[in-house]
């Protein structure tokens, strides 16, 4: 069983000389990797001591980079600190409302055009 690490513990490792990050609910100690990081040391220091999942995914790391993470694995983020994803995001709600508005507008325009003929 993997060691569970609270986010509060990860938050304490927020310096270039002691650098932990969370990626996909797994905790990594990348202190020794920071000078080798192709994106530069600063990109790691900027996310030190916090959840870097979005930053990591946004860059589009290669499968080799994802494989390298295994070497720096410390443990899993504590279950209490894992953010639960809501089944419906704001984006989904906005898309649904936009589609409903367009649909209602089209029905109105079509009926108005038919009524004129």
TrEMBL record:
<keyword id="KW-0349">Heme</keyword>
<keyword id="KW-0408">Iron</keyword>
<dbReference type="GO" id="GO:0046872">
    <property type="term" value="F:metal ion binding"/>
</dbReference>
<dbReference type="Pfam" id="PF00173">
    <property type="entry name" value="Cyt-b5"/>
</dbReference>
<protein>
    <recommendedName>
        <fullName>Cytochrome b5</fullName>
    </recommendedName>
</protein>
<keyword id="KW-0492">Microsome</keyword>
<comment type="similarity">
    <text>Belongs to the cytochrome b5 family.</text>
</comment>
<dbReference type="InterPro" id="IPR036400">
    <property type="entry name" value="Cyt_B5-like_heme/steroid_sf"/>
</dbReference>
<keyword id="KW-0249">Electron transport</keyword>
<dbReference type="InterPro" id="IPR001199">
    <property type="entry name" value="Cyt_B5-like_heme/steroid-bd"/>
</dbReference>
<keyword id="KW-0256">Endoplasmic reticulum</keyword>
<keyword id="KW-0812">Transmembrane</keyword>
<feature type="transmembrane region" description="Helical">
    <location>
        <begin position="92"/>
        <end position="110"/>
    </location>
</feature>
<feature type="domain" description="Cytochrome b5 heme-binding">
    <location>
        <begin position="2"/>
        <end position="78"/>
    </location>
</feature>
<keyword id="KW-1133">Transmembrane helix</keyword>
<keyword id="KW-0813">Transport</keyword>
<dbReference type="InterPro" id="IPR050668">
    <property type="entry name" value="Cytochrome_b5"/>
</dbReference>
<dbReference type="GO" id="GO:0020037">
    <property type="term" value="F:heme binding"/>
</dbReference>
<keyword id="KW-0479">Metal-binding</keyword>
<dbReference type="GO" id="GO:0005789">
    <property type="term" value="C:endoplasmic reticulum membrane"/>
</dbReference>
<keyword id="KW-0472">Membrane</keyword>
């Amino acid at each position: 069983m993997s060691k569970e690490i609270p986010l509060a513990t990860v938050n304490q490792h927020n310096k270039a000389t002691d650098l932990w990050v969370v990626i996909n609910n797994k905790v990594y100690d990348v202190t020794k990797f920071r000078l080798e990081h192709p994106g530069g040391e600063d990109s790691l220091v900027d996310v030190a001591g916090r959840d870097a999942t979005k930053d990591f995914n946004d860059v589009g790391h290669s499968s080799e980079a994802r494989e390298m993470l295994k070497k720096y694995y410390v443990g899993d983020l504590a279950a209490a600190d894992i953010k639960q994803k809501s089944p419906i995001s704001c984006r989904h709600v906005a898309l649904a409302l936009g589609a409903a508005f367009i649909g209602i507008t089209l029905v109105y325009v079509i009926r108005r055009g038919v009524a004129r003929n």
